[in-house]
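To whoever picks this up:

The nightly regression suite flagged Cytochrome P450 55A3 as changed. Nothing in the input moved, so I suspect the structure step. Input below, exactly as stored in the fixture:
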Amino acid sequence: MLAFRPISSLSSSKSSVFRISKTALKSMSTTAGTPKFPFSRPRGAEPAEEYAHLRATDPVSKVELWDGSQAWLVVKHKDICSVLTDERLSKQRNRPGFPELDQGGKEAAKRKPTFVDMDKPDHMKSRGMIEDIFSREAIERMRPSIQNTVDTLLDEMIKDGCKNPVDVVEKLALPVASYTIYGILGVPFEDLKFLTHQAAIRSNGSATATAASQANQDLLDYIGGLVDKRVSEPNGDLISKLVTEQLVPGHIQRDDAIQMAFLMLVAGNATMVNMINLGIVTLFENPAQLADLKKAPSLAPIFVEELCRFHTASALATRRVAKVDITLGGKTIKAGEGIIAATQSGNRDADVFQNPDTFDMYRKRGTESAFGYGYGEHRCVAEGLARTELEIVFSTLFQRLPNLKLAVPLDQVKYSPPERDVGITELPITW
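Regenerated output under the current build:
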């Protein structure tokens, strides 16, 4: 039984940026002369080839979205930093011109926003309601519990054995990510299986739209019930904090508490699961660095740092809309025009990262910032927690299972659809 308790390969892009496939060039040559976005990855986890082409030729350019609307795409590191720190640009999704990437996003924009979709001063005010829960000191206090969760999950895997391949998504990645945030929220242990199942359906790229929507609603309904329960039975968890400090005094409404708790439940779940899976595959793609990590698990922090650069989390989430006319990269972006900051492209910018298409956990780092979990004031509030979870997983996994191997060839790993954020839907392993 899991001990769960609430917690109070390639050359430098300088020589390869002009290499782009005929398929990618075709996608950039629509009848209107404006490429369609999102671009598709050519294979596996490799970024879309169009990014390298645009970094070299047109780093601030227009793209066409799913509904025929247009937005500006920004692909160079320095320009992305500018976008993510410019207060003349808005994060509010209900502003006309905000670039939504599909119909689901357009519908989500109609809902009451959480702090991630607010501008100053509302953003900092709402973020401040939960920020101290994710402080460095608070996360350090969580470390033993996270370690215990990882150890217990691996104990169960080892006990059950591997006569047949085991899906590491189901047995490790998903429960580590889920149980940690559930503990912070104060979810009762008996509800873990139900919530983990719903979260998996919601974030699984192969799920039908109807199933994903129903799972989303089931999670919202569950959080609503937990908020109501904490009004009369507060505990030392995040939902209780929102209820006692904000809801009961009348600073926020019930829907606000539900949406904020729901955001914490789902926002980092799929990203964390994918980063664990991508990290495992990346190590097998770089066997010398895997051997080093096995010998010295203390290398986990620098491995995680490079992992967050190489496989950008939530690469399609960094979007803005201009509140006034601005100039960026020599282009005039008018008020009401949307902007997509391609952080995945910025993390492969050869002007900032030497040999950016090579995974190297030993790379020398200066003042440059990788867009692992955002940048600027909208940087993920739980970034420290995410990095801690990843460090614990990768300092532990190959120590406990030194003979761990993928049960499928690298070229048969199942990745998320090529036009979505990079992820892995299932990953069979043996040991």
